[in-house]
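Recap quiz, item 2
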Amino acid sequence: MADTGRVKIRIPSTIRAGEVIRVRSLVIHPMETARRDKQGNLIRRNYDFIHTVSVSYNGKQVMRGETTQAVSQNPIFAFPLKVDRPGKLTVTFLDTTGKSYEGTAEIKF
Amino acid sequence: MGLDKLSGNFSRRAFLRCAAAFFAVTTVAKSALFGAEAPGRAAASGFPLPDEKVEATLKRLFGNRPLHPGEGKLKLELPLIAEDGANVAVTVEAGLPMTPASHVGNIYIISDKNRRPLIARFLFTPEAGKAYIGTNIRLAATTDVRAVAEMNDGTLYAVSRHVRVTVGGCGDDVPQG
């Protein structure tokens, strides 16, 4: 997929200081699984899925997710974030091929 | 007298025949189930772990710690019927405190019927302000989905919901042909 690794982050349009906001992030990723035939033998063996989602705010990690192939293609992750001062939100996705994809959003009041 | 003897003989013979047939069937079934499939999978699998029962997953993750019912503390939202198992929206929201002294450390999403039941695990810090996660998951078959919240002191709260899956969403099943 040409778009693999594109990250979109959506934050609420109005944010007040001290609020817990809901951030939605989306990454374009195939999240490929291994396929097996009826005897249980592998017929396709390219694991290419995101195994770690890391959310940091102003450089400090807030949340981390460890995911498996059982997460859908082009996964969405919605998570909370407590904002008491303006800053930069970074969401990093790591996949099994060693690539990492990053999306950022500025949080202002 | 003669009739009695005959029927006694007959039933004994029938019993033996039945027993023999049953024995044959069970041995065939056993070899089909354990002889052919299991070692084939284990040998060919390599990296992906073989099937794991959900009980084994829970034991591996939580040991013998009790899972407290989480109704009222943990909210798990899923569709009742998922038409496409490849993309099922799930949200887990914990109404539990998020202070440095007592907060939700981990949220696990587990599906009973997936080949590997553990779908994802999310680690929270008190800076998140709330323990909430929304994502899209794959479900292999009609199943119970569990959400488990682990507090920083190790207390576990679990809720589960039943989801009917119309078309399985895992890549394990091969397309026809």
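The domain at 7-107 of chain A is CATH 2.60.40.10 (Immunoglobulin-like).
The interface with chain B takes residues 20, 22, 24, 32-43, 45, 47, 57, 60-73, 75-82 of chain A (CB under 8 Å).
End of item.
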